[in-house]
Structure prediction request, 120 residues.
Amino acid sequence: MKLTFSPASPFARKVRICAIELGLIDRIELIPASVAPGTPNEKYAHDVNPLRKLPVLLLDDGSTVADSLVICEYLDDLAGGGKLMPITGPARWKVKTEHSLLQGVLDAMLLCRYERLLRP
Prediction:
C-alpha cells in the first residue's frame, strides 16, 4: 500500500497515527504529494484524486481509498476490525461522531491556513 501525504497535512497525519496504532505503518509506503490552492497539480487530479485532496491510500490492486476517515476505517478493518472504531452499537456512533467533529475542526484549520497563505 502507498499513502499520498504531505508532512503538513493534518489529515495525512491522522491516517499515519491510525496506521501506527494498528501496527500497519510498516506496510505503507509514504508518497509525498503537493496539493495546494493556486498550485495546479493536474497529474494528481487525474491519476489519484479528482478532488485534489490528501491523503489517498493506493492499494496494491490499483484501487484507491480516499478521505482520511474512510482510510482509517479501512485500516481498522484490515487489522481485524473494532480496534479503533467499534463495529456496532452506541460506541460506534459515538466514535464516528467524534471523528466527524475532529474532521470539521481540521477542515476549518486548513481553510484558515490557506486563507493566510493566499491573502497575507
Summary: The chain has a mean pLDDT of 90. The chain is about 50% helix and 10% strand.
